[in-house]
Amino acid sequence: MASTTITRIESRFRELRENGRKGLVVYLTAGDPDLGAMDGLLQALDRAGVDVIELGVPFSDPLADGPVIQRASERALRSGTTLRKILERFPVWRQTVHAPIILFSYFNPILQFGLERFAATAAQVGIDGALVVDLTPEEAEGYVRTMRAHGLDTVFLASPTSTDARLERAAQLSTGFLYLISRTGVTGERSEMAAGVRPLVERARRITSLPIAVGFGISTPAQVGEVQAAADAAVVGSAVVHAIEEHYSTRGPAAIEQFVLGLKAATGGKPE
After folding, report:
1. CA–CA separation, 43 and 29 (whole Å)
2. Cα–Cα distance, 202 to 208 (Å, whole number)
3. Is 54 one of the annotated active-site residues of the chain?
4. Which residues of the chain are under the pLDDT cut of 70?
5. pLDDT in tens, 212-246
6. Rg over CA atoms, the chain
7. For this structure, is 65 an active site residue?
8. What percent of the chain is modeled with pLDDT above 90?
9. pTM value > 0.85
10. Domains and CATH numbers, the chain
């Protein structure tokens, strides 16, 4: 049976709501530039006050990702990163990182690993849930049932083009939070926010009480603040991955921590 215990993600969003604050969700690709670097990078995000970390599983055909995350996946794959190695290394990361961490993956690596084995292992090592970017709500019942049986959150995506029925189905299958895509297309930094963010959030609020996070194209503190004015959390991915690509080799995790602290300032600063 699924656990009735409040998950780490639910607890974090409840804490944010009680304190009148909005959340920051940050994505990075596991194994970029290599698995050894993840120790310091994950700790840097945690120190900077990230509310939820999305840890991407590198995949050879990342159709939903723009060039920045595609390059990160290529670097991670060249370094030998696999889902199995991420799961093996995760207990070390969990010891020092307090923020909730979900895996952001395409479905193929999970299928190859085995769904039941994946869910059981993920729960055992301290992963909080998963977002499977190419798994549609219509095909997800078996996945959701297996994940919930192990007490893992399942986060689904909806977009401005989602019908009301699709939006409602994504919300029904989601736990932890609902992830809304700010625009159609692939991930990547944008100079300005899509005009449809607020209407999409308002549509979602009419059908679910889940916290709502908005991502895709968010890269500056101003954009983070703009999204948080409508939603419960902003998701930043490509901008952080780009900062790793540009600065990690010379300045290490400290550069990423400083970059994220700048984004976090839009939420009211790092929590005490």
Report:
1. 14
2. 10
3. yes
4. 1-4, 62, 64-65, 183-195, 268-272
5. 999 988 989 999 999 999 999 999 999 999 999 99
6. 17
7. yes
8. 82
9. yes
10. 22-155+218-264 (3.20.20.70)
